[in-house]
User: What shape does this take?
Amino acid sequence: MNFDRVIAVRTNKTVYRDGDKCLKVFGEDYSKADVLNEALNQARVEETGLNIPKILEVTKVENKWVIVSEFIEGKTLARLIEENPDKKDEYLAQFVDLQLLIQSKTCPLLNKLKDKMNRKISQADLTATERYDLHTRLESMPKHNKVCHGDFNPSNIIIATDGTPYILDWSHVTQGNGAADAARTYLLFWLQGDIEGATKYLDMFCEKSHTEKQYVQSWMPIVAASQSVKGNEKEREFLHTWFSVVDYR
Assistant: This one.
């Protein structure tokens, strides 16, 4: 394996290109269960027929776990938007269509989104009253079984050289309510400082999915709380503002 060409660096993981392969290398202290679960989830999503890089193998190199998958040649949707700002609406429409395509699939063996959110809310730096309120809100939400990406943003979409879109990074995939996944994407736009993009995205998602905007917004405090467990201090501070000030009920 060739680890010379770095594609991306994330907390406790580095992604390399080795010819037609993509190597995701995890830190030595990264949980084996989490690595194997990520590979398993991606393999399960492959079976839905979505365009995603296929898992080739899971191995260890110098005491570090490595997930080896196909490398997709192309540009991310985030880069295309940056290079062609006049086409942003067109790219956002394609972005929403891809998310709805994902949510049209089912994958019964994936972890349930509600279970994951309940665990995260229990770990959040909140008062007992706030956690109870969020758990109660979450339990009242309709139960769905749609495939939910969990980190759906333009940097996780590759447009291949032949124009085919591929969806990357399935480490957070679950099955559950698509509106919760949309709320997560909306907050990701906010975290990146693209407030205009967040608004346009939400409008497009609601129009194309025939979903009431208030319904997606009602998920935002729940999603923000569950996401606040990870991330840097600045992100946690931002997400905390959604717990108390956002109440769309």
Q: What stands out?
A: The chain is about 50% helix and 20% strand. The first helix runs from residue 32 to 46. The first strand starts at residue 5 and ends at 10. The chain has a mean pLDDT of 92.
